Amino acid sequence: MADTSVKKVVLAYSGGLDTSIILKWLQTTYRCEVVTFTADLGQGEELGPARDKALLLGIKPENIFIEDLREEFVRDYVFPMFRANAAYEGVYLLGTSIARPLIAQKLIEIAEKTGADAVSHGATGKGNDQVRFELTAYALKPDVHVIAPWREWDLRSREQLIAFAEQHQIPIAKNKRGEAPFSVDANLLHASSEGRVLEDPAVEVPDYVYSRTISPEDAPDTPTIVTVSFEKGDAVAIDGVKLSPATLLAKLNDLGRDNGIGRLDLVENRFVGMKSRGMYETPGGTILHAAHRAIESITLDRGAAHLKDQIMPQYAELIYNGFWFSPEREMLQALIDKSQEFVTGDVRLKLYKGGVHVIGRSSDYSLYDQDLVTFEEGAVAYDHRDAAGFIKLNALRLRTLGQRKKKLGL
Questions:
Q1: Which residues are known catalytic residues?
Q2: Which of 111, 248, 314, 396 is the most exposed place for a label (fewest CB within 10 A)?
Q3: Is there a single domain that holds both residue 251 and residue 282?
């Protein structure tokens, strides 16, 4: 039953059919004032129609919020995550996961600004996004009322949704009347596709699902050489040209797309307990991830690098599960950011038919000493004879264990 105490709700609104149905459902079920918030995260869609649709559905102009968050998204969310080399279950670069806390943060900011006592989202009851939106909302505004229509209403089929839309004169595009072959979520970091034609993990992803990358087989026969420059762990320039965070990621997206880079067919473990199959395209992020690890390889001490690799899975899981605003994520971020003090320099990469190949790296803070690693004899600060004692000390416990086995006849 709807909570009649709710007076005003801020809705995460895309302007699409589903969130337009949610908007009208909130008005008719909760009898409350609705504020819409539409975020431009680089999804590649015009946002003007979202404003027009909200006006058509009776939203007051002062209650329509549309914000360009591309720079904030990359600078304050994507880049900190990439400093950690975060990849959920070793491969997923968290393109959807990292966008949700920013959207939820803005929902709460607008709720505070407009005096709203509730926020609402269009995430389904089976997915991870409901968790991500709501954990953020509660972290930032503990007393907020969260309305999740997909968990409350009785609209259980596409036919019922369409009937509701028709009943309330919500415009329906012809291509929205049937079941979509798959669902898509997109932002500047990636595009993800799930559902319907992708649900059987034994079946190859159809070509028409891909939207951000060309097929590696169709990529140019000539490789693309690109240099990415870093300062304190963040990419700042491409081929010597300084770029803003969002502009830089967009440029890497173009390079990745044209070379068939960044496709991932993944069966993942959702936080809510089920496995799901999705297809992710992260062209620029895939290049950035490889480049960042390359510059760290010459600027990070072994102990620092290995510690980062140890905590990365936990850090990635926190983001995937929606705990961006948790104290443990912030503590790990402080450690990660400390490690990036000297992660500055250039990485040269070869992009070729779906592959990202590191072909050079340099830094004024490099720990790589060619005199130490050379096979040539010379005046270096390394005496080969020292290795004998080093090995014997490290072998002591192994020899002791071996002697016991021998004594026991094992």
A1: 18, 100, 129, 183
A2: 396
A3: yes
The answer to whether residue 242 sits within a structural domain is yes
> Maximum CA pair distance of the chain?
87
Q: Are residues 158 and 247 in the same domain?
A: no
Q: What is the pLDDT along the chain (410 residues), one digit of tens a residue?
A: 567 789 999 999 999 999 999 999 999 999 999 999 999 999 988 898 999 999 999 999 999 999 999 999 999 999 999 999 999 999 999 999 999 999 999 999 999 999 999 999 999 999 999 999 999 999 999 999 999 999 999 998 889 999 999 999 998 877 777 777 889 999 999 999 999 899 999 999 999 999 999 999 999 999 999 999 999 999 999 999 999 999 999 999 999 999 999 999 999 999 999 999 999 999 999 999 999 999 999 999 999 999 999 999 999 999 999 999 999 999 999 999 999 999 999 999 999 999 999 999 999 999 998 877 766 665 566 788 999 999 999 999 999 999 999 999 99
17 and 152 share one domain = yes
Residue showing tokens 């009898």:
31
- Across 250-313, where does the E strand assignment appear? 263-269, 275-281
